[in-house]
Amino acid sequence: MGKMDRDVRMSLQTLRVLDAFLASPAEELAGADVHKRSGLASGTLYPILLRLESAGWFVSRWERIDPSSAGRPRRRLYRLTSSGLARASEVFASFGRGVPA
User: Fold this and answer.
1) At 13, which CATH number?
2) Total number of domains in the chain
3) pTM for the complete prediction?
4) Which of 43, 57, 62, 98 has its C-alpha lying 20 to 30 A from 78's C-alpha?
């Protein structure tokens, strides 16, 4: 898949991205949704999403819509993998904080 998931650098920004997904781990989020939840600028956000996806923490797919009838471009949707959820939970637990309810 890419680098091993243990190679992911845990910056404050990476933690904010993970936190956005941990609020509802099974939910697919578009980059704009993650931006709203994390408050990160796109130039910071998208490299983190790509790094976490290449490490196997996320999977992504293109939204299946017709852009002309929707009146907007398709969005890329991201979702935590089961191993990503486990690793994110471990990271937050190591800070003495459980996964958000």
Assistant:
1) 1.10.10.10
2) 1
3) 0.83
4) 98
CA distance 73 to 31: 13
Tokens of 10: 């845990």
Domain around 80 = 5-63+73-93
Query: In this structure, are residues 81 and 57 in contact, taking their beta carbons and an 8 Å threshold?
Result: yes
Q: Are 63 and 30 in contact (CB under 8 A)?
A: yes
Is the residue at 47 inside a domain?
Answer: yes
Given a contact cutoff of 8 angstroms between Cβ atoms, the answer to whether 48 and 17 are in contact is yes
- DSSP secondary structure string, 32-89? HHHHHHH---HHHHHHHHHHHHHTTSEEEEE----HHHHTS---EEEEE-HHHHHHHH
Residue 26 lies in a domain: yes
State the Cα–Cα distance between residues 45 and 35, nearest whole angstrom.
Answer: 7
> pLDDT per residue over 48-79, tens digit each?
999 999 999 999 999 999 999 999 999 999 99
